[in-house]
Amino acid sequence: MVKDKKDFLFMAAVYAFIVAIFVITFYPFWNIFIISLNSAEDTLRGHLYLWPREFSLKSYEQILGDSEIWTAIRVTLLRTVIGTPLAVLTISMLAFALSKKELVANRFWTLYFVFTMYFGGGLIPYYMVLKSYHLIDNFMVFIVPGLMNVFYMIIVRTFMQGLPQELDESAKMDGANYLQIFFRIILPLTTPVLATIGLFTAISHWNSWFDSYVFTYNPDLKTLQAVLVKILNQYQTGSMVGDAQAMANSAKRMQVSPDTIRMAATMVATLPIIMVYPFLQKYFVKGMTLGAVKS
């Protein structure tokens, strides 16, 4: 009886801890969501905790009514859809090559790529390199530099090195070359880890704004995050008005406010990528636990 009581108390503490962590991590997102759905005038009153007091979609209408936003969404969607599979393919192919001990100067090439993780030339040399390849103000500036992530490559290579060598040997006996081995045998077996790095790469593409901010000048090449940063900066000055100005705006029954615009912009940028998680969750869990158990 004593043991059962201790087990019950332990499990109750575990579940209480999990619920607490869930509330701590989820509530900020929920608060952003309800503020984005609340009317601007009512939001100025504050004390908005669990649900909108005065439901309003004016902030979303303001954000989504801008044609610049839809252009930015198209650019961001294109760079994510094109850049993610190309990056996963490039990373996995390099990882496959470096996982082979018979590769000439294998250790040298591994150290060569690892070196780039710790040392870089800085922003100005990086800009000059991109300019020399005519990537400045070019859509490919979003794709080409992101084709390789050495950290992800090392993860994939480590996983491939753990696969049975007999797979390669049997395939070679059947007349398969390295390209056939890679696409027909290795890729299907590395689906969990590839899905994991693919998800991380997609998030990186979707949330990226600095490359668009620095390396592009054409408004038609601005990404969603870069446009939202611009919008947030525009409305940031509105949040600095004093109480008297806030009361004056409230008297005019303004439809949007800096707070509601910022929250709506955050939701517009966040929700699409969050919707990807359910489809990759099973692969994500497997990929994150790779290497945790050694045979």
UniProtKB/TrEMBL annotation:
Output the CDD domains linked to this UniProt entry. Answer: TM_PBP2 (cd06261)
Q: Which family does it belong to?
A: Belongs to the binding-protein-dependent transport system permease family.
Q: How does it sit in the membrane?
A: Multi-pass membrane protein
Q: Which domain of life is it from?
A: Bacteria
Q: TM spans, by residue?
A: 7-30, 77-97, 109-127, 139-160, 181-203, 261-280
Instruction: Supply the name of the protein.
Output: Sugar ABC transporter permease
Q: Which organism is it from?
A: Paenibacillus glycanilyticus
Describe the location of the ABC transmembrane type-1 domain by residue ranges.
73-280
Q: Where in the cell is it found?
A: Cell membrane
Database matches in PANTHER family: ABC TRANSPORTER PERMEASE PROTEIN MG189-RELATED-RELATED (PTHR43744), POLYGALACTURONAN_RHAMNOGALACTURONAN TRANSPORT SYSTEM PERMEASE PROTEIN YTCP (PTHR43744:SF9)
Check the record and name the PROSITE patterns matching this protein.
ABC_TM1
Gene3D superfamilies, alphabetically? Answer: MetI-like
Q: Note one Pfam family from the annotation.
A: BPD_transp_1
| Keywords, in A-Z order | Cell membrane, Membrane, Transmembrane, Transmembrane helix, Transport
